[in-house]
Amino acid sequence: MSEDKTYAVPNQPTPSRPVIIDAELCIACNKCVEVCQMDVFIPNPEKGKPPIIMYADECWYGGSCVDFCPVNGAIKLNQPLMQRVRYKRKATGEHFRI
Amino acid sequence: MIYNTGIEWPYPVLYEKETEVDTDVLVLGGGIAGCWAAITAAKKGLKVAIVEKGATISSGSGGSGVDHWGPCVNNPCSTVTAEEAVQSPPKGSGMYNFAMSHYIDAKENYDTLLEMEQMGGKIRDTEDEFAGADFRDDDTKFMFAYDYDKRYRMRVWGANFKPLLYEECKRLGVKIYDRTMATGLLTEGGKQGGRCIGAVALNVRTGEFFIFRSKATITSMAKHQRNWNFSTEMSGLNTFRPNLSGAGYAMAWRAGATFTHMEMSKRSMLSSGQTFPFYGTGNSFNTWVPCTLIDADGKEIPWIGRDGNVMDSVSDRVHPGEAGRGRKKAEKTVAELLADLATAYRRRPLPDIIPDLEQRIIAGEFKLPLYADLPGMTEQERNVIWGVMVGNEGRTRTPVLNTYNESGFDSSRDLLQSYIMLGGGGLYEPSMPQTRIGGDLGPAGGFVVDWNLMTTLEGLYAAGDTLPMSHTHSHAAVTGKYAARKASQYASNISQAQLSRQQIDREKARLYGPIKNKDGMEWKELNQALCRVMQNYCGEVKNEELLNIGLTWLDDIERNVIPTAYAPNPHILGRTVEVLDILDCNRLILQSSLARKACSTMMSFVRLDHPQVDPPDWHKWVTIKQQDDRIVTDSLPHDYWGDLESNYAKHSGL
To answer: Alpha-carbon distance B264 to B87, whole Å?
Structure first.
């Protein structure tokens, strides 16, 4: 797709980014494709590129893709924003979010 | 119209292509029960095949981990017997405790755990991280959960148990068919109710069709799910477990197997899209026992013990003493039963935090929000909750423990917020009364089996969650082993049978319909419609008229909508076939609900046209099957397995 054109695109399922792949770190071994229970990923048709997150709405956040990834940090779980739990520092009362 | 990404399907498309596989023992579903079954049968020298929709390395309800194991009554520290363990049945099961398989679990639980250790599973605190802890035995290095006196629920480091089982299957030469969903059972002569002689399956990447011919078959697929409650929006597919549709039930129902307790469902605590990561919010239940909860001002929420009195210390919570004798329940009216059910889902076995917490918050005694006070626990209690339990229980290692720690959460100084009374996650969650759960979480109905764990179809054995009122990791492991012992024995004395081509062709026609359409109904909308049928016509209150309308709706959808279903690739075809199975499970639930003509407190079951609550005549297992495509209902006594000790001794083969 050309960057200077505007396309007709349907809405994305929510969540649309259950995992985030770091394209710099990913070695395109497709291990995540092999271990994902839901088949959220498909291999990239372009050799050497990170897998494509095709069925984002089926992710159950089990974490197999992260657990079995051979490169630390190449893939991360990305919990939906509304499911990010909050916490409070006991000593100071400051609030944080996961 | 379905949006086309322009990316060509990356796998070869082999719709309708047939591959035939011969095996001695066929295992349908490669989860915990399935892997243990396969390992057990393979060790007996039999040819074994696993058919698994996901990837066996970490598939199934227990595939991503387990933090506790029991009833481990034979471990040297336990003070509990198998008989006592089955007398304290799982929460919510009450008189409908399926004591037969739970007794088997108790008897063989410890040996199975030791076998897990042989495979490389960590079941002891070998690094002495918790030396001297109240919950640890310093001789065996075993660690215990919940009741530190009885010592029969083990804390285990189960995050990698499933990959270890997978390696063991491979080592023993088990043939593993991943990404392959079993869709139908094959019976002798193609007849409903006939001997099970194999199964057919669909590869969800290629669309290829598999025909498995077996001497014995073990069904160890998940319970029925997504019957009342389904949304992919904001929640992942369903609320809890992947890939689960009740296919194991649906195919056996079509094949004529007998089921029981399928009318059992409960008010949902799991509204799709409203939950937080499981075990990932402040709470004091299950994996988090005995964590202290405090209110917004730091005031501790009291716990009460089995005698109803407030417990003074954290230590009391894990030394709860003997359970008191339950009060005999007074007879209830339907109105009283309904009022009771409205809050029943909040009640849990004691010890627990105060059951009237909600009222006391409203009265101003405690201030929202609440928090889990991990920093206030002793170091050993804190680290065993946040690190061992949260970290090894399913879906906690990466989704909770590592994710939270990496984001800066520090269990020694931070209070994790609780969502009690804020909606979403844990108990006290507002939920739609009509959004019920069947097999989605916790005990539900399942296969009628005998002491061989053989179903009413000869040659078909059942293990794991498909047994009635069963839902734990170790129960799946032990019953998988037991069923495989029996199935192996059976397979060694019988030859393979001739398959019915007609039955295979019928199944192919059913499966490949959705690829022949060029556009049409999409699986998610179908699944949601099936849930709406159940919400409206098989909800909190039922009567014959409602249930029959539900069945009419299902017939209508099957006849007029399913033929328009559209699947543009094998993945979506797999999801669509799941929904066909959900439709059959819904039918099984509606028909079972028609068959129980009384209300039941323990089953959270209300028939307004049969308002007697728990009449003694109905204290039984209602059974149901199809024969010549007609519904046949019957019943079995609530203890139909007879004396546990003598029957186990007679049948276990040990």
So the answer is: 20
Query: How far is A17 from chain B, CA to nearest CA, in Å?
Result: 11
Structural domain harbouring B562: 501-615
b/e for B430-466, b at 16 or more Cβ within 10 A?
A: ebeebbbbbbbbbbbbbbbbebbbbbbbbbbbbbbbb
- Closest among B247, B159, B9, B15 to A39, alpha carbons compared: B9
Q: Which residue of B has its CA nearest to A15?
A: B234
The interface pTM score, or ipTM, of the predicted complex is 0.96
| Cβ-Cβ contacts under 8 Å, A83 against chain B | 234, 275-277
pLDDT at site B244: 87
CB-CB under 8 Å, B281 with A15:
no
Which candidate from A10, A57, A90 shows the least CB-CB separation from B414?
Answer: A90
Q: Which of B417, B448, B463 is the last residue of a domain?
A: B417
The residue among B417, B435, B451 that closes a domain is B417
- The verdict on residue A2 lying in a domain is no
**Residues on chain A bordering chain B, Cβ-to-Cβ distance under 8 angstroms:** 10, 13-15, 18, 34-39, 42-43, 45, 52, 54-55, 57-64, 66-68, 77, 79-80, 82-83, 85-91, 96, 98
Please list every residue in chain A whose beta carbon sits closer than 8 Å to the beta carbon of residue B416.
85, 87
Mind listing the pLDDT tens digit for each residue in B33-80?
Answer: 999 999 999 999 999 999 999 999 999 989 999 999 999 999 999 999
Contact B236 A79 (CB under 8 A): no
CATH number at residue A53: 3.30.70.20
Low-confidence stretches of chain A (pLDDT < 70) are 1
Pair of tokens at residue B224 = 């029925």
Residues of A with Cβ-Cβ distance to B5 under 8 angstroms: 54
DSSP-assigned states of every residue in B379-447 = HHHHHHHBTTTBTTSTTTIIIIIIHHHHTT--TTTEEEEP-TTTSSSSSS----TT-EESSSSS---EE
Contact B373 A90 (CB under 8 A): yes
The count of structural domains within chain B is: 2
Same domain, B297 and B411: yes
Mutate to test the interface with A, among B176, B235, B288, B577 (most CBs of A within 10 A): B235
- pLDDT given for residue A60 in this prediction: 87
Question: Measured between alpha carbons, how far is B401 from B409 in angstroms, rounded to an integer?
Answer: 9
Spans of chain B, pLDDT less than 50? 89-94, 325-327, 424-426, 428, 430
Q: Could you tell me which residues come within 8 angstroms of residue B262 by beta carbon, excluding any fewer than 6 positions away?
A: B224, B438, B444, B445, B588, B589, B591, B592, B624
In this complex, which of A18, A37, A57 lies closest to B54 when CB atoms are compared?
A: A37
Q: What region does B238 belong to: left with phi over 0, alpha with psi -120 to 50, or beta?
A: left
CATH code of the domain covering residue B293? 3.90.700
B525 min Cα distance to partner chain A (Å): 14
Q: Report the chain A residue with the minimal C-alpha distance to residue B274.
A: A83
Q: Would residue B516 count as lying in a domain?
A: yes
Query: Which residue type is seen at B97?
Result: N
Q: What is the pLDDT of residue B431?
A: 52
Compute the distance between CA of residue B27 and CA of residue B11 in angstroms, rounded to an integer: 25
Q: Quick one: pLDDT at residue B433?
A: 55
Tokens of B612: 């007697």
The whole-angstrom separation of Cα B453 and Cα B485 is 10
Chain A residues with beta carbon closer than 8 angstroms to that of B281: 85
